[in-house]
Amino acid sequence: MTSTMSASPSSAPASTAPVNQPPRVLSGIQPTADSFQVGNYLGAIRRWVDLQETHDAFYCVVDQHAITVDYDPQVLRHRTLLSFAQLMAAGLDPQRATIFVQSHVPEHSQLSWVLQCMTGFGEAGRMTQFKDKSAREGADRSTVGLFTYPVLQAADILIYQADGVPVGEDQRQHLELTRDLAQRFNSRFGETFVVPTALIVADTAKILDLADPTSKMSKSSPSGCLFLLDDERVLTKKIKTAVTDSGREIALDRESKPGVSNLLSLIGAFTDRTPEQVATDLQGGGYGDLKTAAIDAVLSFTGPFAAAVAELMADPGELTRLMNLGAHRAREAAAPTLAAVYDRVGFVQLPD
Questions:
Q1: What are phi and psi of 247, to 5 degrees?
Q2: Is residue 8's pLDDT more than 60?
Q3: Phi, psi of 46 (to 5 degrees)
Q4: Is-contact 97 58, C-beta < 8 A?
Q5: Does residue 204 carry a pLDDT above 90?
Q6: Whole-number Å distance between alpha carbons of 158 and 64
Q7: Mean pLDDT, rounded, for 101-115
Q8: CA end-to-end span of the chain, whole Å?
Q9: Is pLDDT at 16 greater than 50 in this prediction?
Q10: Which of 8, 66, 255, 266 qualifies as a FRET site for 212, CA 20 to 30 Å off?
Q11: Share of the chain above pLDDT 90, in %
């Protein structure tokens, strides 16, 4: 969600929210790989780390979304733990943000059902991700869960009264559905939800595939994708064999030198410099110097990151404690919204 902002509510419904709290942001990541890749970190998670300093931040491992396609239960369980550990290792702090696993907070699914009953069939069918995935897998193999995925995603956001959602271009349509559902519910039942807006970070580093620098870096391209938990030798080999361009000049030119420009962006992202600054610093060198600088920049982050992940994974008791902490905070925040929704749609509620 993977996700601008106005004054934030707290856990209360929109109409009764305190006005003195920082704006709230919500985003999540699927546990669908054995390691986050560079694009996940630079395009999303690094920004989440920054946002936790200035916002009331909620971040989750969206394991329920991960079962909309074929999966192995044991692999999912391992990847959920590993994803949670990676969020911690990347710099998310349980004292500054609420970090949790989606399935640990049943209010997501409970709100999703209400929202499904307000979503048109044609409206859900127009979601491009569903159309793309069902076209690849075949309609007979596409699940109802995949079809209603965007509605659960809307519930993920609305249950916390999030003001802003960090989103990429591929998620804009889903956020628009979330906004439509919030406005529809508010119009019919009274002001209940904050209508979230897209949180766009203009300077997000866009690192492309090392084997094809005209394409997005993706786990579907093993040779061109840098996974943060890859062994140092693997990362080094991938960068050494990265596609460059004709000539020897190190210059930022995304049209005529996409490979060189991609490596300059990669170095800049991990060394807090612009690609232009990196190009200037490497003037007079060759492509070997460029790749050496890229290897050094990447390994300076991935080495400590992998060590921190390994330490967390070796202590399941601490990992469980942190998950419990996040789940408890998330449920505390979600419960008032769900109670308000249930009351307004006419459900009979029992006293505590």
A1: 85, -175
A2: no
A3: -60, -35
A4: yes
A5: no
A6: 16
A7: 98
A8: 34
A9: no
A10: 66
A11: 74
Using a 10 angstrom Cβ sphere, with 0-12 exposed, 13-18 middle and 19 or more buried, the burial of residue 21 is middle
Model's pTM, two decimal places?
A: 0.89
For domain 14-204+315-345, give the CATH superfamily. HUPs (3.40.50.620)
Q: Which of 130, 88, 158, 126 is nearest to 311 (CA)?
A: 88
E-strand ranges in the chain read: 24-29, 56-61, 97-101, 164-166, 197-199
Distance of CA 7 to the CA centre of its chain: 23
- Reported as a single tens digit per residue, the pLDDT across 288-311 is 999 999 999 999 999 999 999 999
Which backbone phi and psi does 125 adopt, to 5 degrees? -70, -20
Domain limits, the chain: 14-204+315-345, 232-312
pLDDT at 21: 86
Looking at domain 232-312, its CATH class is: mainly alpha
Task: Measure the CA–CA gap between 254 and 283, rounded to whole angstroms.
Answer: 17
If DSSP codes are grouped into helix, strand and coil, which group holds residue 198?
A: strand
More confident residue, 254 or 6: 254
Q: What is the pLDDT of residue 61?
A: 98
Q: What angle do CA 139, 145, 149 make, to 5 degrees?
A: 105
Which of the residues are catalytic? Answer: 133, 216, 219
Token representation of residue 286: 């060759």
Query: Cα separation of 182 and 204, whole Å?
Result: 28
Q: Strand 164-166 to strand 197-199: parallel, antiparallel, or no bridges (unpaired)?
A: parallel
Domains 14-204+315-345 and 232-312 share a fold: no
Q: Which of 83, 79, 102 is nearest to 92 (CA)?
A: 83
Specify whether the CB–CB gap between 154 and 28 falls below 8 A. Answer: no
pLDDT computed for residue 17 by the predictor: 44
Higher pLDDT, 277 or 222: 277
How confident is the prediction for the chain on average, in pLDDT?
A: 90
Burial class, 212, CB count within 10 angstroms (exposed 0-12 / middle 13-18 / buried 19+): middle
| Helical spans, DSSP H, in 192-351 | 232-240, 258-271, 275-281, 287-313, 316-345
Query: Cα–Cα distances in Å, from 164 out to 110, 112, 264?
Result: 22, 19, 31
Give the SS3 label for residue 28.
strand
